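Hi Q.,

Before the meeting this afternoon, I wanted you to have the 4'-deoxy-4'-aminopyridoxal-5'-phosphate prediction in hand. No need to reply - just skim if you have a minute. The sequence and ligand are here:
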Amino acid sequence: VGWWDHVAPAAKDPINGVTEAFLADPSPFKINLGVGAYRDDKGRPVVLQCVREAEAKIAGSEFLESISASVSTKMVEESVKLVYGKDSDVVKEGRSAGVQALSGTGACRLFAEFQRRFHPESHIYFPDPTWSKYVCSSSFGFLQVLVQFFQVVKCLSDNEIDVQISIFSVIEVQSCVLYSHHNIWRDAQIPERTYHYYDPDSKSLDFAALMDDIKNAPDSSFFLFHPSAHNPTGVDPTEEQWREISYQFKVKGHFPFFDMAYQGFASGDLDKDAQAIRIFLEDEHLIGCAQSYAKSMGLYGHRVGCLSILCVDSKQAAAIRSQIQQIARAMYGSPPVHGILLVETILSDPNLKSLWIDEVKIMADRIQRKRTTLRQNLEKLGSSLNWEHITNQVDRLAKEFHIYMTQDGRISMAGVTTGNVNYLANAIHEVTR
Ligand code: PMP
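Predicted structure with the ligand bound:
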């Protein structure tokens, strides 16, 4: 009695909240743009053909014993080739300490814990905004939200700002994020900072401010980057900008950590989406990378990912790997084996791998096409998007048009289909006029 009386309900995950609202809406026109999961052009979930074939291949072959963290080296070997390039020196020289992780979130969590053990004094810098945008803690959540809000609504009158603040204070209570970069590193007790990333005025990368933040951070700071398909803005640095960032990282001795949640989804090409990482490799940085197969193989629920950290030589890699494995064992023992076997089978069978590469391209192309059609439809309607009233717009889209998305206005393009793109364009145009 009385043991848990002080425990209040935790804040809701905004994405789950969006899904709940979507499911409860009886409208036949409803659209869910909240969940970042791939859908086909009829809005249905997809199991990739390469996954179906890999499942057939491994059926019956699986020992229902949990493999210890060190056994599935094949999946890790193939994953590091994907991200660093199969002919890269780090791969040839065995200089990467890689372990399988519980999808991208788990890989980030393992790294944050590793950082706490071996560099507890250093800060981690996140892009502003990052996955997920709205972060709260009881003490400064409201402020943080307000900062975001001011960036979005700079040019409103005082009166209008009051109205918006009240909307945002509701968001603070209702839609704090349960898992996100901020929360993951905060749980590891790593002090966090943000660096400038998105400029709402130009709706593009605030490159000058980003470079200033890199220069002004204490030497040897940790920085998290999204190597492609930045969540939630979709804005990525150009090749030239990555080169400048990499150069400045050399000057400052910063550590780059790449959270690769969508390899292949930005361009349809796995190597192209790893371009930022390859540029850092050329400059001989030691980097860390979290990889997720949730999106690129559609294995969301299987929770398959990889954490890799580059080292000076294979001996250091072995030491670091053993440390990460020890952290993982204390957290969850070992990861579930089925998804790992699927990824391992697809990546190490040339036919399945080339089928997968084709399927990644098909998914990326479909999303690109819908993005173009949506834009064309909006242009035809004479829309010039007005992001200043984004909260109102998101609310109106849900209430009047049965279209659901997270409060930061991020829409998952995978939820857009041939069947709903006209309806969506009309609705967006209506609320942004
Ligand atoms: N990083 C980023 C940038 C993400 O957008 C996501 C999920 N949307 C993740 C990590 C985590 O993905 P998962 O744990 O499902 O692999």
